[in-house]
Design goal:
By secondary structure, the chain is mainly alpha-helical. Helices cover 57% and strands 6% of the residues. The protein has a two-stranded antiparallel sheet with strand order 1-2.
Length: 142
């Protein structure tokens, strides 16, 4: 008696191959897309497109914070940050005030991103520009 195992295995693999999702390359976000997502955030913060905007900005901020020195680790642990403890962190020309909530920072950055140019900038440049325009360290030097 012949076994049907090889035919069965072949059919299972064929079905799996035909129904498997196709692989796609990562689509990098463009500045005009980020602006559109941030417009949606400003209209309705918890919309799916709005969440893309805040996730992008928060990810950018997390990236900045992760490059901070051990001072950020102390802040994250709830310990004093040192002489410049008025700020959550200071890096790349951005000084986020400790007493300013993340929701305010996100809203201010989103407004600046929407108002910015899409022509010459990558989205990450739009975010850092928005943060520097509104939370630049030089604003505090008076």
């Amino acid at each position: 008696m012949k076994t049907r195992a090889p035919l069965h295995a072949f059919l299972v693999l064929l079905v799996a191959a035909l129904t498997a999702p196709s692989a796609h390359a990562i689509d990098w976000i463009r500045t005009r897309d980020l602006q559109s997502f941030c417009e949606a955030f400003l209209v309705k913060a918890d919309s799916p497109s709005g969440r893309v905007c805040i996730s992008y900005i928060q990810g950018f901020l997390d990236g900045l914070k992760s490059t901070e020195d051990d001072r950020f680790q102390r802040i994250a642990a709830g310990e004093p940050a040192g002489e410049d403890s008025d700020y959550t962190f200071t890096l790349a020309g951005v000084c986020l005030p400790r007493d300013t909530g993340i929701n305010r920072i996100l809203r201010v950055a989103a407004r600046a991103i929407v108002a910015g140019s899409t022509e010459a900038h990558d989205p990450e440049h739009s975010v850092i520009t928005a943060l520097r325009e509104n939370y630049g360290c030089e604003q505090d030097s008076s």
